[in-house]
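Running co-folding for iron/sulfur cluster.
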Amino acid sequence: MERPHSAGRATRPSSPRGYEGPLPASLVKEYLWCPAYAWLSWNGPRLRAPPHVEVEYSLEPRAAVQLARALGHRGRVVAEARLYSPRLRVYGRVDYLVEPEGGPGAVLEVKARGAWGGGLHQEAQAALYAMAAEDAYGEPFKAYIVSRLEVREVPLEARARALVALSSLRRILAEPAPPKPGHGGLRCRSCAYKRWCPWASPGGNRGL
Ligand code: SF4
């Protein structure tokens, strides 16, 4: 294995629970997609735009407002809203945030594809955004995944899954090497980190 350029992030303060600092919600999504990918994304080489996470679908602001109203959310719509939850130590920038007004607020996370690979990793990211928004506004929020194929409301169970994944992620980030993933190499073929990954399977299927 060629060594990644730096393991600097792994040396950040950690405890028996793992890395304790703030983490991006997107890293939890990556962890659920492939734990080794999350480790390499955090501890490994900086890649500008890993091919499989490039956004191929965008939601224009006017369409976002229309969608929010159709979903029953009347509040102000904020594009690229930055969120941080001191409680969860999770941050991120959600594509659209609809402020609470006469009902719950909403976060709209735009994805290139629909429920890619089952979509649980996408749901975890959106659920963390919703929780961070609730912490910021003190009001309930719903979360949605928006793609050209569908608009999917994220179930409340996704929050518990996201918190379990966040806890596991904190632990593996403090490890000296990427953990073995459970997908048996099925997600390796188009992975931007396969050059550095000890678990890369060149014959794996494309991202599914
Ligand atoms: S090469 Fe495969 S195992 Fe390694 S990070 Fe990428 S998807 Fe995960």
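Result summary
The pocket of iron/sulfur cluster is lined by residues 34, 36-37, 40, 181, 187-188, 191, 193-194, 197, 199-200 (CB under 6 Å).
Residues 61-161 form a domain with the Trna Endonuclease; Chain: A, domain 1 fold (CATH 3.40.1350).
Job closed.
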